[in-house]
Write a structure and sequence with these properties.
The protein is an all-alpha fold. The chain has 22 helices and no strands. The chain has a single domain, classed as Up-down Bundle (Sodium/glucose cotransporter), CATH 1.20.1730.
Amino acid sequence: MDTQPLLSTGGMICMGLYLFSLIGIGLAGRFARKENTMADFYLAGRGMGVFVLFLTLYATQYSGNTLIGFSGRAYREGFTALVTVTFMTVIIGAYLIFAPKLYRLSKKHKYITVGDFIQHRFQSTALTVTITVIAIIALGNYILTNLKAIGFIIVAATGGQVSFTQGIIVLSLIMVIYETLGGMRSVAWTDMIQGVLLLFGVFLIFITIQSEYGGLAKMSEQIKSIRPDFWQPPDWGGKRLWLSTIIIVFFGISVYPHAIQRIYAARDEKTLRRSLQIMVFMPLVTTLFMIIVGIVGAAQIPGLDRQGSEQITLLLLNDLAQKIPAISWLLVIFLSAAVAAIMSTVDSALLAISSLVTQDLYGKVKPESSQSHLTGVGKIVSWIIMAGAVWLAIALPQTIWRLFEIKLELLCQIAPAIFLGIHLKSLSAKSILTGILLGTAVALFIMIGNWAGLAIDTKPWGVHAGVWGLMVNFLAVGACNFFKNGTTRNQPAFG
């Protein structure tokens, strides 16, 4: 195996200085703390302005998959991968359906977590705990898989001088230190840097590859001869998969607990709306750019297998650095941007799990606990969760990428509680709980049945297991609500 480091000694030093500087930002967040409360620690005092809120949303939504997965998919699938831009755009449409009203409610009723909204809306501890457990499992998977990605990148960057295990442990320590020092404030400030680095890195990579390889038009002509399948439209099975992916992304990513916390943290509703309006354009300068990079890579370096295609951006930059040594610094930008994107995802998910465990589980058992006590418990939870995730990332087999889809298949099952619950006052807790349990059971049956060797496809008829579960979920909610006994006078007050 080639152990040649991707970064020079100087490049490694630059990346190391950047990573350890994040602890300094954590200290700054600690000193900026106004009070020792859950709202201050987990929502930065509900005072995020447009610039900070936009960049933390951007850094959270676009993980390392942006620089690795999107270009790899384009390398394999060609121009049909452009539909990924749609996938990322629909998330903002989903936010606009519920985020403004959810923000107003959070401001009025002082929500900290998604569980706070569920408990206030439905007055059901069983429903709140169910949704909290599903969210924790999904976010735990999110942290685990991203930690493994960090380990792989560090090994590649250093040529094995820093091992997979060492890379995961060191970066995990950095993240949990600055997160527990300053909470959401530190996470948001580091997200600002990571968001700028990600956007800058994507833009530079796109411009450099376009200019050095002759642009998309030239590459398209070359692709016609070596990959004519790139120009073929998808069949009906492919189109069903597109629609299924749009649905699971729309309902899954939009209810990320860490994204909902950012909705709560906005300074005011105008700030939230402006941040989301800017986010609408980000797929065009992030997802689209990396898709084009992947297509250019298919023309320039054909014949890669699936694993090789995931490294196409890195391979192009390596090729350019050999031809033009002066631009080898782009490798530093790329690898730093990839690590930054992953870290912004992990720290956000860690903070969300910490708040969910503390507020929605521990807080239910110890309702008399003070705000300072709950905040302290949350910090301890962060260290425990990160330690467990690090151990699993090191110990489990490395072929776990399917867990990314599982995360969305589970998370989308809580979407009806938010999308319907926030607008329909007559909706009952029993109907939502029934829908979640049935929908999750269907999704798990399809996934587990496939793993167990049953004649069940992971995507029956080209549709994700989570989407089948979501359809059952919505139908169960509608049926239970339609046939429920009693009248709306028994509904808890909400508003």
